[in-house]
Write a structure and sequence with these properties.
Elements lengths: L3 E7 L17 E2 L2 E2 H10 L4 E8 L4 H15 L2 E4 L4 H9 L8 E6 L7 H14 L1 E7 L4 E3 L8 E3 L5 E10 H10 L8 H7 L5 E4 L10 H13 L20
Parallel strand pairs: 1-4, 1-6, 4-5, 7-11
Antiparallel strand pairs: 2-3, 6-10, 7-10, 8-9
Length: about 250
């Protein structure tokens, strides 16, 4: 069985979440911190052998103080993030074990991921070396440089909205990041594309929501009620009912 490492990206600024107490990956969601939903779902898989959460430098100390029991019980490693997302992922890549075959990067703020979608994108990455979840763009797109008036309507034909997990053969991802130079990509597929590799698209789901605002948090809570629950050995969240980040 191929082995996978999962990097949970949680080093963003959460500027649009607009909460004085919480950055979004650590906000309470259905009885536990948001990042734990994603962590527990990947840790329940037999093919996932390593999970690394990457955090903003200013969050590392508080995270260890608050969630130290969680990361110890679950066997999660912590990496320190960089100035931009690509810098953070590159830092986490340095912690990936030598015996890992594939690396998946998943947004810690996408708590509604389920095995069916993970299965599909993991399989596609094994077939092609690089694969992401994505959904076709269905809405009408407008470009506005001022944010006040429309400059043009952008054709949505052949456009896809990228999601995570994004999964790559380990060596492909390491080599792509080694070549990226000053490129500050907004996702990992862009780094791999820039290195000359084709990336396969796997149909995702609108339910694989990325929480950006507090309204998204309420939507995600309703979605979690309808989705399959992970089955973990032992207790993943010893402070499930605690106030997790104040």
């Amino acid at each position: 069985m191929p082995s996978f490492a999962v990097i949970l990206a949680a080093a963003g600024k959460s500027s649009r979440f607009n909460d004085q107490h919480y950055k979004k990956p650590f906000a309470p969601l259905a009885g536990k911190a948001m990042w734990l939903h994603a962590a527990e779902k990947v840790l329940a898989r037999n093919d996932v052998k390593q999970v690394i959460i990457v955090l903003a430098p200013e969050d590392v100390e508080d995270f260890r103080a608050k969630f130290g029991a969680n990361i110890a019980i679950l066997g999660i490693e912590v990496a320190q993030g960089g100035a931009e997302r690509a810098d953070s992922v590159q830092n986490a890549l340095e912690k990936v074990n030598e015996n890992i075959d594939y690396v998946a990067i998943h947004d810690a703020a996408r708590p509604c991921i389920v095995d069916e979608w993970i299965d599909r994108v993991f399989k596609a990455a094994q077939d092609s070396g690089a694969a992401i979840l994505a959904t076709p763009v269905t809405g009408t797109l407008k470009r506005s440089r001022s944010g006040k008036t429309i400059d043009e309507t952008v054709p949505r034909d052949h456009l896809w909205q990228a999601q995570t997990p994004q999964v790559f053969k380990k060596q492909i991802l390491i080599e792509a990041y080694a070549k990226r130079g000053s490129l500050q990509a907004t996702d990992d597929a862009q780094v791999v594309e820039a290195a000359g590799h084709k990336v396969s698209i796997v149909n995702g789901s609108a339910m694989n929501i990325k929480v950006t605002t507090k309204e998204d948090l309420r939507i995600a809570e309703q979605m979690l009620k309808a989705l399959p629950k992970p089955k973990l050995k032992g207790t993943g969240n010893p402070f499930a009912n605690d106030d997790m980040w104040r």
